[in-house]
Amino acid sequence: MSKITLGSWLTLNNPSIAEIMASSGFDWLCIDMEHSVTDYKEAQLLIMAIQSKGLKAYIRVGENNPRIIKRVLDAGADGIIVPMVNSREDAIRAVEAVNYPPVGKRGVGLARAQGYGFNFDEYKNQKANNILLIAQIEHIDAVNQLDDILSLDGIHGTIIGPYDLSGSMGKPGSYDDEDVKQVLNKYESTAKKYDKLIGFHVIQPDYKLVMEKIDQGYNFIAFSLDSIFLGQAARTQTSKLREKLGTE
Fold it and tell me: Is residue 58 within 8 Å of residue 133, measured between CB atoms?
């Protein structure tokens, strides 16, 4: 199994926040372009801030769309997380979008990733061959076809989306439901058959929850996100201060 790699999520489109997060001991940071208002220009600035600290900069795109994937890769992203990969066909579409011919169908541009046109050969022969591609598993169809997805060359791992997965079963957020438990167990047991990354996003900033997922076999872990880290620290310390002041 691959070594454990620890990252976090960026939803606030501010390069200063990205720099602070990138100096906090993570291996990578993922810029969320699915559930945030971050646009392409802001994403490139965030990528630059992350990479300036020596971390990998990943992007979760809004959809499995080759035009979107192409643009964020040309901005210099080190990896892509693709939502709603529900079949081998979806996985093939993502692999083709990430890779240049003959492996894929990615179009050639001369942007930041390629040194603005001065380092294309270096990029093509080195970095372009090492772009991480993670398929997000968040539908019952994806779990049922997980072997077909994970057996595909070019898919380096998966990350589970438990809320949407339970929602696709008509039981959103019902993690104690026996059917939902069975499906989550099926995801874990199937994913462990492959020497690929097994991902989970631990939302609460509690390291003990991360350790629980590591003990369960997860090795690609997103630890909370910028807004939760900021908000929880502020609320916890302010609450303690108000308690001492007697004004809670």
Answer: no
User: Average pLDDT, stretch 124-146?
Assistant: 97
Only one residue has tokens 């620890």, namely 6
| pLDDT computed for residue 247 by the predictor | 77
109 phi-psi bin (left φ>0, alpha ψ -120 to 50, beta other)? beta
User: Which residues are designated catalytic?
Assistant: 35
What is the reported pTM? 0.95
Domain total for the chain?
Answer: 1
Tens of pLDDT, residue by residue over 201-223, are 999 999 999 999 999 999 999 99
Task: Tell me if 12 sits within 8 A of 224, measured CB to CB.
Answer: no
DSSP assigned state of 119: S
Please report, for the domain that includes residue 142, its CATH number. Answer: 3.20.20.60
Condensed to tens digits (0 to 9), the pLDDT of residues 85-126 reads: 999 999 999 999 999 999 999 999 999 999 999 999 999 999
3-state class (DSSP) for residue 111:
coil
8 A C-beta contact, residue 196 and residue 171: no
Confidence of residue 2 (pLDDT cuts 50, 70, 90): low
Q: With both helix axes pointing from N to C terminus, report the angle between 66-74 and 40-51 in degrees, rounded to the nearest 10.
A: 40
Q: Which domain holds residue 81?
A: 5-245
Quickly list H helices, the chain: 15-22, 40-51, 66-74, 88-98, 120-125, 140-144, 146-150, 162-168, 178-191, 207-215, 226-245
